# Entry
Amino acid sequence: DATDDGCVSVAVNSSVLDPCSPCDVVGTIDNEVCDDNMGSTDPSDDTYDITVTATVSNGSGAYDVLVDGVEATANISSGTSTTINVPAGGSAVAITFRDATDDSCVSAAVNSSVLDPCSAPPPCMISVVSTFATPCVPATNTYSLSVEVIYENAPVGELITISTSTLASMSFTPAGVNGTETFTLTEITADGVADIDVTATYSMTNTCTNTAAASYDAPPACTGCPDGNCGGTTVTPNVIRPEE
# Structure
């Protein structure tokens, strides 16, 4: 009653007064740091620490983090950051943020950068072990050169290039990552040049190379010689130890 405070009705309860604005979650990626597992050279054990922050409006006041739809961590207070760990799989991941108690309240996806491994590859090695030149072929005035090479940790997808100081050069596909193989250069002009250097290197990683100095003598020219007999040819195999 307007003038009698003791005259009061029985209470009438309203419905539950939920917020009328919809729940909303907005998140960001703040930082990405690659971890190579304490200097390991194995890229398969690399991971990324990704720091994220999300804000929940008209919701529970906390959020979960999902990576490619799979929950990575949960119940983080709205507005605070958290760090998740993700494998360095060589591709981007989609990160979404969800209200901690309302699975239907989910943010738009935020894509990471491409998460490439960060481990330094193991050091490569290549060395010319020996060389052998065939006699001159009279029909073509050419010879072949066989080069034995030892290699380790060959860069994936690269060829091994064998070249000489007389500008002969050919590239070959190694049989594996580590090995000892003999590669043969063909149709090199016979000209009798002595003390020819032979170099082995990878087709793109030119910091990993080895040269066998004065490794062999080319056979003399044999065009027009009776039965190709233009004199003897000295071929000197040369064993080279890997460079320290």
Remarks:
- The longest strand covers residues 24-35.
- The two ends are 102 Å apart (CA to CA).
- The chain is about 0% helix and 45% strand.
- Residues 104 and 210 are 62 Å apart (CA to CA).
